[in-house]
């Protein structure tokens, strides 16, 4: 068990700056998720921790040791790859035992550890098989088993679930979570899937273009996104954005555009006041929108035209246009609307977010 | 596969396939039939009555007996086998290591080096034997098996290197990365993971290299002179064609027996060999 410290780390390829000064402190036993679109530097960062990529600048510490120049084998880590990377010519047992054999464990200890790991992962019956005889989920379990037998200080996961089908992915996600609860090994997990990030991470790091956008607990990212990018990335369906102008209307602040005129809640008033008269971006999550009824104040509702209604059973996802901006609303399953119908939507004021129009930072 | 009526399958699949097979196999058939045909049937006019050019009613082993009694055919076979095996092993050893290095290690000029190795393969042997014979003479290797064992790799190593480079590139690099995280050094990861996974590729490179050196003619003709040192292709041609007299029966017997080891090698490894050429590794 150990903490991992990434200090001002850069990675430059010949003409590409992949990671631009990332600093992270991963606490002992923590499960940290790096999430972002492809090419954001998350995998490169992970590979630098693993020792598979050299570090151009900065320092990485595992425990209290600077590992910049240590080869992967001496870092006491285990990594699970997206394509499983099982050794195709070895049985499941040998796959899991390989790391222990390389480290010269004695045979009885190897057997004990492999059996134990196979037990935890439910692959005891497959130990004599070759990887090609296993299903995708079983292969990923073997890859996990190969990581846990060594009892390393840190687990590194590089999009381990991306090659699985949707149903299996959910199942394996739960298993990884259980595994972490059981073993409590410090883990760094890379994914592009924000749902995996939200469900697995003790803390989540959102990255983009080689820079950290925000670090925080999943709910913190969901509730208080630091900028428009994080707001749009976390949550599904994604947050709606509308360009508005902030106007001072006799003491009350209004966010206006051609389709809506929304009163800024008192809690945000102080922060938005300096932006009066300037453009801003209004953000509202689909789940903070509902069909308006007669009691809703006019300055917390707006009109929109339904483009598509998707009935999911537990909710209806409405694709709408309000003026020039398209919106998505997640409303009660009892709502029945037709395409091109004009509807009135109400906003939960607690869900309103504002972002600076130029810096895109949260206001 | 061709869909539709049965006649389409026959016309577009079986018939062309059969023609192709006949075209390919006829020389072998001719070799076999000539081997077993007695001399008095061999040297007669085509248009003679009752002459069956594609068959014989009086098969004989005379030519094979002649080959073994009157020429050093067994020695040639042994020479060819020894030379082909040694040069194949040397070339595979170098080719596997070079192919690995060129495909996996990033070092300056790796790409250019790979191309240069390939270019050496493109220099025709009919030119290269001239400088090589000078070298062979200087090192006093002429008329020994080593003159061939050491010169065959000049075209076998580039060949094996390129075949292995392609094969190594098809192996996911995560396998090796995982092994290195698991505690293997680069060398151990290569020995325990990459090379076992590459066995089909190594086998097909080996079979190809073996066949190339088994059939090689020019270097063997130039560098070997005494009958006891010759390889099968050179021995058969130089000892069984005397002036303008062709000992067709014995010639064909020599060709037939000489091609059997290669055929056996192919048939043993045909599956590996095909998967090695198509280069697929499934994780």
Description:
The complex is a heterodimer of chains A (363) and B (283). Chain A has 363 residues and is α+β, with helices and mostly antiparallel strands. Helix content of chain A is 25%, strand content 34%. Chain A is built from 9 helices and 20 strands. Chain A has helices spanning 42-50, 92-102, 107-121, 136-148, 166-183, 194-200, 218-223, 228-233, 266-272; strands at 4-13, 16-26, 31-35, 57-62, 65-66, 77-80, 154-158, 186-191, 203-208, 211-216, 240-249, 252-256, 261-263, 279-284, 289-291, 301-311, 316-322, 325-331, 342-347, 353-356. The longest helix of chain A is centred in the middle third of the chain and has 18 residues, at 166-183. The model of chain A has no long low-confidence stretch (mean pLDDT 90). Chain B has helices spanning 6-36, 39-42, 62-70, 73-104, 110-122, 125-138, 145-149, 153-170, 173-181, 186-197, 199-215, 218-223, 232-240, 248-278, and strands at 241-242, 245-246. In chain B, strands 1-2 form a two-stranded antiparallel sheet. The two termini of chain B are 28 Å apart. The interface between A and B is medium-sized, with 28 and 21 residues.
């Amino acid at each position: 068990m150990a903490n991992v410290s990434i200090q001002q780390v850069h990675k430059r390829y010949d003409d590409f700056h992949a990671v631009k000064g990332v600093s992270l402190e991963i606490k002992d036993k923590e499960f940290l998720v790096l999430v972002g679109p492809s090419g954001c530097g998350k995998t490169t960062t992970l590979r630098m921790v693993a020792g598979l990529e050299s570090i151009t600048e900065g320092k990485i510490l595992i425990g209290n040791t600077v590992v910049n120049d240590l080869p992967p084998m001496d870092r006491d880590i285990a990594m699970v790859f997206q394509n499983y990377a099982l050794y195709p010519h070895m049985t499941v047992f040998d796959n899991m035992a390989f790391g222990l054999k390389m480290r010269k464990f004695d045979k009885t200890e190897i057997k004990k550890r492999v059996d134990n790991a196979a037990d935890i992962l439910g692959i005891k019956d497959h130990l004599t098989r070759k990887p090609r005889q296993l299903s995708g989920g079983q292969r990923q379990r073997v890859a996990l088993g190969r990581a846990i037998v060594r009892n390393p200080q840190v687990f590194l996961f590089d999009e381990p679930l991306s090659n699985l089908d949707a149903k299996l992915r959910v199942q394996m996600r739960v298993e990884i979570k259980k595994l972490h609860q059981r073993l409590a090994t410090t883990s760094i997990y890379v994914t592009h899937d924000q749902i995996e990030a939200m469900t697995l991470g003790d803390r989540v790091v959102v990255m983009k273009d080689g820079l950290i956008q925000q670090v925080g607990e999943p709910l913190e990212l969901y509730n208080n996104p630091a900028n428009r990018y994080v707001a749009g990335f976390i949550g599904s369906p994604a947050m709606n954005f509308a360009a508005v102008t902030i106007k001072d209307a006799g003491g009350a602040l209004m966010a206006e555009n051609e389709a809506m005129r929304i009163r800024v809640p008192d809690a945000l008033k102080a922060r938005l006041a300096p932006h009066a008269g300037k453009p801003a971006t209004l953000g509202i999550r689909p789940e903070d929108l509902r069909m308006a009824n007669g009691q809703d104040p006019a300055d917390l509702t707006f009109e929109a035209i339904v483009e598509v209604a998707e009935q999911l059973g537990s909710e209806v996802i409405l694709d709408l246009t309000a003026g020039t901006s398209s919106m998505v609303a997640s409303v009660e399953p009892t709502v029945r609307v037709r395409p091109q119908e004009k509807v009135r939507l109400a906003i939960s004021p607690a869900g309103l977010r504002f972002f600076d129009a130029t810096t895109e930072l949260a206001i | 596969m061709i869909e539709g009526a049965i006649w389409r399958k026959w016309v577009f699949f079986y018939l062309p396939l059969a023609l192709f097979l006949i075209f390919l196999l006829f020389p072998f058939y001719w070799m076999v039939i000539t081997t077993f045909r007695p001399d008095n049937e061999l040297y007669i006019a085509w248009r003679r009555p009752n002459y069956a050019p594609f068959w014989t009613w009086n098969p004989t082993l005379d030519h094979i007996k002649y080959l073994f009694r009157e020429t050093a055919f067994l020695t040639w076979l042994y020479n060819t086998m020894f030379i082909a095996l040694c040069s194949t092993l040397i070339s595979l050893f170098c080719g596997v290591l070079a192919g690995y290095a060129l495909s996996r290690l990033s070092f300056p000029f790796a790409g250019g080096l790979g191309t240069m190795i390939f270019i050496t393969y493109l220099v025709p042997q009919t030119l290269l034997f001239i400088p090589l014979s000078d070298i062979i003479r200087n090192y006093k290797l002429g008329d020994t098996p080593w003159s061939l064992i050491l010169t065959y790799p000049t075209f076998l190593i580039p060949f094996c290197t390129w075949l292995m480079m392609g094969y190594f590139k098809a192996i996911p690099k995560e396998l090796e990365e995982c092994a290195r995280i698991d505690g293997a050094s680069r060398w151990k990861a290569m020995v325990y993971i990459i090379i076992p996974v590459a066995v089909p590729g190594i086998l097909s490179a080996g079979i190809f290299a073996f066949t190339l050196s088994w059939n090689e003619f020019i270097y063997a003709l130039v560098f070997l002179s005494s009958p006891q040192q010759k390889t099968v292709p050179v021995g058969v041609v130089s000892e069984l064609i005397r002036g303008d007299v062709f000992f067709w029966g014995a010639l064909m017997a020599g060709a037939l027996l000489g091609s059997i080891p290669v055929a056996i090698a192919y048939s043993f490894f045909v599956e590996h060999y095909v998967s090695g050429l198509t280069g697929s590794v499934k994780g």
